[in-house]
Amino acid sequence: MKLIIAIVQDEDAQKLTSTLMNEGYSVTKLATTGGFLRSGNTTFLIGVDEERLDHAMELIEKVCKSRKQFATAPSPVADTSGGYAPYPVEVTVGGATVFVVEVKDFRKI
Ligand code: 2BA
User: Fold this and answer.
1) 2-65+95-102 topology per CATH
2) Is the entire prediction scored with pTM above 0.85?
3) Of 1, 33, 45, 69, which has the fewest CB atoms closer than 10 Å, so is most exposed?
4) Buried/exposed 2-21: b ≥16 CB within 10 Å, e otherwise
């Protein structure tokens, strides 16, 4: 068995939940926060049998879109007052950041 840990944008979370559930996957969702943008995202925990891993990954890829967002970064040069005013930087977020880990043991007790 494998555990898929998928970090997705909040905008895609509801559709991904229903898509996975309709295809018979068990899903746990966690409300998480990205360290860079400091904004909310959603982390899915999906335990899957090895033979269904590729199918689950295809569904994640199909649902999760990449989007552009703005982050603020401190200016690399000081302004006239000696401060480093933040300026907006465009970043492309997603589709999804996915980790697949081996499950050593799985029990429902
Ligand atoms: P955030 O950390 O809020 O990052 C949002 C987006 O900002 C990233 O999109 C990436 O395009 C950009 N970004 C992140 N760190 C950066 C940096 N040091 N310099 C420049 N740009 C940077 P994604 O790569 O699609 O990541 C989306 C979210 O997935 C991340 O949100 C984070 O919550 C998670 N994530 C990504 N890589 C991860 C990793 N290696 N370990 C754990 N979580 C990760």
Assistant:
1) Alpha-Beta Plaits (3.30.70)
2) yes
3) 33
4) bebebbbbeebbeebbebbe
